[in-house]
Design brief:
With 438 residues, the chain is α/β, with parallel strands linked by helices. It is built from 14 helices and 15 strands. Strands 3-4-2-1-7-9-10-8 form an 8-stranded mixed β-sheet, with helices on both faces. The chain has a 5-stranded antiparallel β-sheet with strand order 12-11-13-15-14. Strands 5-6 form a two-stranded antiparallel sheet. Helix 2 packs antiparallel against helix 5.
Length: 438
């Protein structure tokens, strides 16, 4: 068996955390490829190294001296190196190169990526294994997207030469020959890419929580962890705001059927959450998770006999397309069509959209309502249990929460309800209490 193990920033924020990660890796010989993030916060008042680097880049771009800022970052790494007792190891040459690049030709992605790069070097020295620079094995195309074919081919060949290795997360090489980063949280993607290329058996992702929680702990105190969740369920929850994994990290391992195991670095005995393609494992509850977002707008389009007019819905959506506005949901009735959009995208263009709808469809009326929140209840178990929707609506009614919109996919994997922004947190608590606490 082979495993890829990725450690988040909080898991590598200090020498103490590094030692925990090292002990986890050494405790299982199958953990052969390690993906480190940049050091995160050591405490709530601390600053992530990536944020420090981005500030250095800003300073350098303005032509200002970066010496003090670079020294602060160097001190963070030296503190870790000293704590790990790596006496014959130094990052001095790397910091010289970074400083020279910042002074002569500052590049945002290059600077931002150095947190992972430097932490990768420290981890490789601490474990005594090979270091692989992602800029040599992970490639982006002209559009700035991952070149999957070239990356998998090159990375697989390189990994075949290394029984064990550290591959920093978050970045690769752009088509222009310069370092290019994924979006923030992109170390998750690197771990997934390495898992796919090496065709490992498990991708372990170590953070500071014991797996995926049923809902946001900022809303519900101590929500239950989820033991097993499918890729599809996780994608639904992630899209609706659940902060678990970078959503692009799911696809590479999903293609190969590689399970992801989310674990807690500070509590390694916990089993965590298994993210899988499919499972026959019995669920503790009918639903798997609850997530949501605030600040949507609804556009109600009314026209008598709308359902008999061929192409009507397409024309309404064209009005949004013409104005570069993405559409979230489109529940409809016989004479009505509702389009749900993000308020921040829509508000500045609302009158252009209304004008376009009138021009394209000649509706009887168009009405806009703002301040809408969406709450998604997700679970593969809902298909096999009758009365789930009724139970959901009843829980909201008991909490005196009015439902403004209902949308359920044909897969019966999720039910989405629209409510007022001010009812968002009470709604999630009411649903949790109905399905999980009881």
């Amino acid at each position: 068996m082979k495993k890829v193990v990725k450690f988040g920033g909080s898991s590598l924020a200090s020498a103490e955390q590094f030692k925990k990660a090292g002990a986890i890796i050494k405790a299982d010989e199958s953990r052969v490829y390690v993906i480190p993030s940049a050091p995160g916060k050591r405490n709530s008042a601390d600053t992530k190294v990536t944020d420090m680097l981005l500030h250095v880049y800003k300073t350098a771009s303005e032509g200002k001296d970066v010496t003090a800022e670079i020294e602060a970052i160097r001190a963070r790494y030296n503190e870790i190196i000293t704590g790990l007792e790596l006496r014959n190891f130094s990052l001095d040459k790397d910091f010289e190169e970074i400083t020279n690049r910042l002074m002569t030709e500052p590049e945002r992605d290059y600077t931002a990526s150095r947190g992972e790069y430097l932490n990768g070097k420290v981890m490789a020295a601490y474990l005594g294994v090979a270091f692989i620079d992602p800029a040599e094995v992970i490639f982006f195309n002209d559009e700035g997207k991952l070149n999957r074919y070239k990356t998998e081919k090159t990375l697989a060949a390189r990994l075949a030469e290394c029984e064990r290795a550290v591959i920093p997360g978050f970045y690769g090489l752009g088509k222009n020959g310069k370092v290019k980063t994924f979006s923030r949280g992109g170390s998750d993607i690197t771990g997934s890419i390495v898992a796919q290329a090496a065709r490992v058996d498990v991708y372990e992702n170590w953070t500071d929580v014991s797996g995926v929680l049923v809902t946001d702990p900022r809303i519900v105190a101590d929500p239950e962890p989820i033991k097993f969740i499918t890729y599809r369920e996780l994608r639904e929850l992630s899209y609706m705001g659940a902060s678990v994994l970078h959503e692009d990290a799911i696809f590479p391992v999903r293609q190969c059927g590689i399970p992801i195991n989310l674990r807690n670095t500070n509590s390694p005995a916990d089993e965590g959450t298994w993210i899988v393609e499919s499972t026959a494992q019995k669920q503790d509850h009918v639903i798997t998770g609850i997530a949501g977002k605030k600040d949507f707008c609804t556009v109600f389009v009314y026209k008598a006999m709308m359902n008999s007019e061929i192409g009507f819905c397409r024309k309404v959506l064209q009005a949004f397309e013409e104005n570069d506005i993405s559409v979230e949901h489109v529940p409809s009735g016989i004479d009505t069509m509702t389009v749900v959009v993000h308020a921040d995208e829509f508000m500045a263009k609302e009158q252009q959209v209304i004008s376009a709808i009138h021009r394209l469809t000649s509706p009887d009326s168009v009405e806009i309502e703002s301040g809408l929140a969406l709450v998604a209840v997700v679970g593969r178990g809902m298909r096999a249990v009758s009365g789930t929707a009724g139970k959901l609506f009843s829980s909201l009614a008991k909490a005196d929460i009015n439902i403004k919109m209902i949308d359920q996919g044909s897969s019966e994997l999720n039910i989405i309800v629209g409510i007022k922004n001010e009812d968002f947190e009470p709604a999630i608590r009411a649903i949790y209490n109905e399905f999980i606490t009881k």
